[in-house]
Specification:
The chain has ten helices and two strands. Strands 1-2 form a two-stranded antiparallel sheet. Helix 3 packs across helix 4 (64-84), helix 6 packs parallel to helix 10 (210-238) and helix 9 (163-188) runs antiparallel to helix 10. It has helices at residues 3-26, 37-48, 54-62, 64-84, 103-125, 134-145, 147-151, 154-160, 163-188, 210-238, and strands spanning 91-93, 239-241. It is mostly helical.
Length: 254
């Protein structure tokens, strides 16, 4: 496609989007008023579904299809990075030279690693009750795991992050979200419709399908971010072009 054709295609798409956006904005309530019909409806729906955290009710119930799209974007990003950052024909993996880690850094990382992982699990598990959820908790879990890299070395990090298992886990968790939505479609002819007991309001088992979807998102985000960072770390630490010397220092290769 030449440049002129691309410009015409962009112009046509921009006009359609602008018209649709203007039509959508014309139906919004007035800005700055104390009355917000969407807020009231979201709170009522969250209470009806026994979900104490209204934001989680919106993300995983009222607008669960949007959340599925966001999760799919992350999954596609991980898949794209995996394909683009794989070993090229003129690259190879090489043992990196280990650097000295200060004892205070080792102690700090060793103490914070379990605390960070427990915090991430707590945020995921209580997403339907309090601020947080699968996205936030998944990122905390993934980044917390990399304290093993900061406080120890790359070899320790590789031992605690089995990439083959995490790759499969990422795909299964993303598929679980879709499967739960299809299950609701089969049961009640509505995608992501709740088919589980709602439980007692403000209890860990409340919310029906919301905590289950939230957990699937937490697993997918945590696994996906770990895999994504692993490929970038491989490029910075292990992978080097043939004949160009050793990889970056500061880590250790098995």
């Amino acid at each position: 496609m030449n440049r002129t054709a691309r410009l015409w295609l962009f112009g046509a798409a921009a006009v359609v989007i602008a018209v649709c956006f203007a039509a959508a904005c014309s139906g919004l309530p007035s800005f700055g008023t104390a009355v917000h019909p969407y807020g009231r409806r979201a709170v009522v729906a969250a209470v009806r579904q026994h979900t104490a955290n209204v934001v989680s009710s919106v993300n995983f119930d009222l607008r669960g299809l949007d959340t599925l799209g966001e999760e799919s974007i992350l999954f596609a990003s991980v898949l794209g990075a995996t394909m683009l950052l794989r070993l090229a024909r003129d690259e190879r993996k090489q043992r990196a030279r280990p650097e000295l880690v200060l004892p205070s850094t080792r102690l700090f990382g060793a103490l914070l690693l379990p605390v960070t992982l427990v915090t991430g699990l707590y945020i995921v598990a209580h997403g339907q009750l309090s601020p947080g959820g699968g996205f936030q908790g998944g990122v905390v879990l993934a980044t917390g795991l990399h304290l093993a890299y900061v406080a120890a070395d790359y070899l320790v990090l590789k031992q605690v992050r089995p990439l083959e298992v995490l790759d499969v886990t990422d795909a299964l968790a993303a598929g679980a979200f879709t499967a739960l939505g299809v299950s609701g479609l089969i049961v009640s002819f509505a995608f992501l419709h709740n088919f589980l007991p709602l439980g007692t309001f403000n209890q860990l088992s409340s919310g029906g399908l919301v905590p289950v979807i939230n957990a699937a998102v937490g697993v997918e985000v945590g696994s996906g971010v770990i895999v994504l960072l692993a490929h970038f770390l491989d490029q910075a630490v292990e992978i080097t072009e043939d004949g160009r010397g050793s990889a970056a220092s500061g880590t250790q290769e098995e």
